[in-house]
Every structure is written in C-alpha cells, then in structure tokens.
Design a protein that fits this description.
330 residues, alpha/beta, Rossmann fold, 2 domains, globular
Length: 330
C-alpha cells in the first residue's frame, strides 16, 4: 500500500466547511476489514450538497466525500472478499459519516460491498452509481405493487437528472410507456432517445395543486418531492404507485390523504443508503442484465477528481444532464 493517496477532503471551517483535493496519509484510513483501490467514483446530488456545504450532509469532519465507488480489493479480513475481487459500494453513510469514494483508496466494512457484475466495467458501474441503483429500486417497487407495462404510462420527474435518466431508460427497456417531466425543454431529444414517449413541462407539477386531479399516470418515479410529489400523487390512476426517492424540490410534502384513501394510491419510499444486501444484489444483477449500454454511454460524462468540486456546483445549478463519472487517478 502506498503511504498516501489523493482524495476530495471536506474540512470544518468557521464558516461551515470547505473542500479541497489533498494527499491523505494511508495510516489515517478509518476502521474497516476491507481496503479497496478505487478505480472510479461518481458525483451524485448528495455529493454535491456535501462538497458545497449547502446542506448539512456531512456528519463528521474531516471526511472524504463520495457515496459511491468501484474498485479492486487490496487487503481483506472479511470472509466474503479476497485481494483482487472487483467490488461496488453505494451508500452506507460513506461521504456522510464514513470516509467515502472520491479518493484513490477506501477502507470499509466488507458487509457493505457488492460484487461488480461480470458484464460491467468500472466506468459503467459508476455511470449507473447510486442514481441508477436507486432508479432500479424504484422500478422494482412499482413491480411489487403490480404496476406492469400493460396498466398505463409511468411518469418520471426530474427526468434529466441521474435517477430520472436511468429510470426512463430502464422503464422503456422493460416495455413501459414513459412520460418525462422536465424544466429543460431543450433536452427533449435526449429524453426521447432514452425512451420517453411524452414530455411534461415541469411547471405543470411544481406549484400548489388540487388534492385530487385528473387521473393521468399508472405510476411514477419522483425525484423532486414538495409540490411536485403532491401533484403527482393527486394525478395517479386508481390503485397506482408512486416511488419517491428524492427531494431536489424540497423536503416538504404539501398534500392530503385524498389520493390514498379515495383512489388506493400507494406512496412507496425508496431508501438506497441502508437497503439490505439481498435487495442491492438483485438491483445490480438486473441493472447489468437490463440497462442498454449504449444509452448508458449517452447519459455519462467523465471527469477527473480535480474537476469534481467545480462540477458539484453545476449539479446543484441544474445544468448537468445524466451521470458524472469520476476517474480518481486524474
């Protein structure tokens, strides 16, 4: 093991926090029974909040940012892993209270790792990342609640973001008709290429609305929250399901119980951070089997670790389309 490694380090300051690229002593790695040489990481919305300090995501300082990584096991004291194994990590508090994946090295619990599917390269795994893994968890929730392609159109909000982009590609590949809600009409061609058949203007959903509205969609994947989620629930057909996984529009939920008790609508909360291993493995196996690699490439942008701080601002500014993969070696 080299004596030091490069990382995106977030430190506490009098004004809140600051982020920088630093050389970190390998001896400072936190407790864990598996050490991983990271090949690729990614930038998610939560990472951007942590790096910029715009939301109190970080629970412990100093910390290495990054809720995802793909890499190779260097050392292991865990029965499931040996040196040379290729692994993925998503969540488990990394980048929040445990040192994360925007670095050349990590030490974590072996219980947090999932084997990299043989059909995926590290670049592809991180193009999927937590965003794509969350999108698959949403699709699986819709399926569990009986929302099949035959029952009607599925709405995806925040369609140009990472979760939204992958959700559209997955749903279309599985035979669903997909409506994409976005505030970026210039991206219509991009969304249709992913598989969306209908484009919905974000403004239709982002303001206060009636408790019950016309029944439009059989189900939905919502990444936005707030008024958008309330309006989506109010517009779901009888017996439909909304998989809610994000809060880009706010943590509030200004809704009534009307859709749930008058139309039998289900609101399914999706947690990617602490999801059990069996669910994670199933999600990753299905992602490897289902996701169109060509479409995955079209939604992906590759950057170096040194670019990550600037791109975090772009993500929060809503100007980034799809997924951002980080090559931690540059």
């Amino acid at each position: 093991m080299t004596p030091s490694f490069r990382a995106l380090l977030i430190e506490k300051t009098d004004a809140g926090s600051s982020a920088r690229i630093a050389d970190v002593d390998s001896g400072l790695l936190p407790e864990g029974d598996v050490t991983v040489r990271i090949e690729r990481s990614t930038l998610n919305y939560k990472d951007a909040l942590a790096i910029t300090g715009r939301s109190p995501v970080v629970r412990r300082f100093p910390i290495i940012a990054g809720i995802d990584f793909a890499g190779v096991v260097e050392e292991s004291g865990h029965a499931a892993w040996t040196a040379g194994d290729r692994v993925i990590l998503n969540g488990w508090g990394c980048g929040e209270k445990h040192w994360g994946g925007l670095a050349e090295r990590a030490r974590v619990s072996g219980d947090w790792l999932v084997a990299l599917p043989a059909s995926l390269a590290p670049d592809q795994a991180m193009a999927i990342g937590t965003a794509g893994y969350t999108a698959m968890l949403c699709v699986m929730a819709l399926e569990r609640h009986g929302v099949t392609p035959s029952v009607g159109e599925i709405l995806v909000t925040g369609a140009c973001g990472g979760v939204g982009s992958v959700a559209i590609a997955l749903l279309a590949r599985l035979g669903y008709s997909v409506a994409a809600a976005t505030g970026r009409p210039e991206e219509e061609a991009y969304l249709r290429d992913l598989g969306a058949s209908t484009i919905v203007e974000r403004a239709e959903l982002s303001g206060p609305g009636k408790p019950l509205q016309a029944e439009r969609w059989a189900g939905a994947v919502d990444t936005v929250g707030s008024h958008t989620l309330a309006n989506v629930c109010a517009s779901i057909r009888y017996g439909g399901t909304v998989a809610a996984c994000g809060l880009a529009g706010g943590m509030d939920f200004p809704a009534t119980v009307a859709p749930f008790i008058l139309r039998g609508v289900t609101l399914a909360g999706i947690d990617s951070v602490m999801a059990p291993l069996d669910l994670r493995r199933t999600a990753w196996e299905r992602l490897a089997d289902t996701l169109d690699h060509r479409k995955l490439q079209t939604i992906t942008r590759m950057i170096g670790l040194s670019d990550a701080i600037g791109v975090a601002d772009e993500i929060l500014g809503g100007t980034v389309r799809g997924r951002v993969v980080v090559d931690v070696s540059r």
